[in-house]
Amino acid sequence: MYAIGLCVDEQYLLPSLVTLGALAETLSPADRRDAAVRILTLDLTRQHAATMAAYVARIGFGSFALRWARPSSRALMVDDDYITETAYLRFQFTQRFLDRPYLIYVDADTLPVDDITGPLEDLGAGRLGLVADEFNSAIGQRTALPGLAEDRPDLLGRPYYNSGMWWTSAELLATIRAGVETALLTGRRYLFHNDQDALNLWLLDHSHVQPVPGRYNTYELSRFLARSDWTRRRTTRNPHPTDTALLHFVGRAKPWLTTTPPTEHVRLYRRALTRTTRELRRLGDHSVDAQAFGRRS
C-alpha cells in the first residue's frame, strides 16, 4: 500500500487536481481504492481543502489527508517566479502522516500518462528511487551543484537527480529529511536549486539512491523547441518519446498558460484540465476557474 504525496498551494491547486485526475485514470478502480492521497500545504483555504478532498473521493482514491505545514527554516527560494515556497514542503512528509508503508512523491506540474507505481516493485530496503535530471544529469554539469566538482574532483560526473518524482519507504523519510537539513546547513555554497541540490549533496555520501528509468520523469521538450533549440544542447533524445509514464512540465512555460505553445503534450494536458474543471463544477465549487487561474499565473 502506498500514498501519493503532493505539495499544494492556491497557485498550484488546479494543476495538482489535474495531476491527480490523470493519475487516477492510469490505475484500476481497486488500485485507486487501496491508494492514499496525502497533501502538504502552506496556504490552501479550508474551502479549497474541502474541494480537494471531495475531488479525490470522486475520482476513486480510498484515503485522503491534508496538513498545513511550513518549509524548513533553512530553505532559500531560488530566483524563479514560477516556483513557489510550497515546493520546499516535499521533505516534510512523515511516516505517521502517510499511514502507508510507501510514498510516491509527485510535483504538481506533471501529467501521469501510464502507471507510475512500477518503481515500487523493485525498490530496495532503505532506498530512495529517483530519475536523473535530464538537463543537468551529472555533478559539474551546468547548474548541478556549482562549484562542488572544483572542491571535490572525485565527485565530477556523479549522477545528479531530479526531485520532482520520487519513490521511497515511509521508514526512510526521517532520514531523508535530516540529511537534507544537514546539507542545507553545511553545503550552502553549492546550492543553486535549493532543496533538490541539498538532497543530491547528501546522497553523494550516502548509498540510499536507487536510479529509476527516465520514462517515469520525462521532461516535455516540445514547448521549448517551438521557440528555440536550446534544449538540444542539454539533451539529444527524441522530443516525442513513446514509452513515457509521466510528463514533467519544467520551466516557466506551464501547459495551463495560454501563452505556452500548443504542442501535442500541451494539448493532452489541456484536455485533462478540461475534464478536471468539469468535475469541479459538478462538485459545486466554481471558485477554481481555469480561465481565471491562467490569468493569475
Q: What does this entry look like structurally?
A:
- There is one protein chain.
- The protein is α/β, with parallel strands linked by helices.
- The chain has eleven helices and ten strands.
- The strands form two sheets. It has a seven-stranded mixed beta sheet, with helices on both faces.
- Helix 7 (173-186) packs across helix 8 (195-203).
- The radius of gyration is 18 Å and the shape is globular.
Describe the secondary-structure layout.
Layout: E1 2-8, H1 13-26, H2 29-34, E2 36-41, H3 46-58, E3 63-68, H4 95-98, E4 102-106, E5 110-112, H5 118-121, E6 128-132, H6 148-151, E7 161-169, H7 173-186, H8 195-203, E8 209-211, E9 218-219, H9 222-225, E10 246-248, H10 264-283, H11 290-296
Parallel strand pairs: 1-2, 1-4, 2-3, 6-8, 9-10
Antiparallel strand pairs: 4-7, 5-10, 6-7
Structural descriptors:
297 residues; three-stranded mixed sheet; single chain; seven-stranded mixed sheet; alpha/beta
Write out the strand line-up for the largest beta sheet, numbering strands in chain order.
Answer: 3-2-1-4-7-6-8
**What's the tally of helices?**
11
Question: Which percent bin holds the helix content?
Answer: 25-40%
What gyration radius follows from the Cα positions, in whole Å?
18 Å
Q: Strand fraction band?
A: 15-25%
**Largest sheet properties:** 7 strands, mixed
Shape: globular
Order of helices and strands: EHHEHEHEEHEHEHHEEHEHH
pLDDT averaged residue by residue: 91
Distance between the termini: 35 Å
Poorly predicted runs of 5 or more residues: none
Number-wise, the strands total: 10
Structural class: alpha/beta
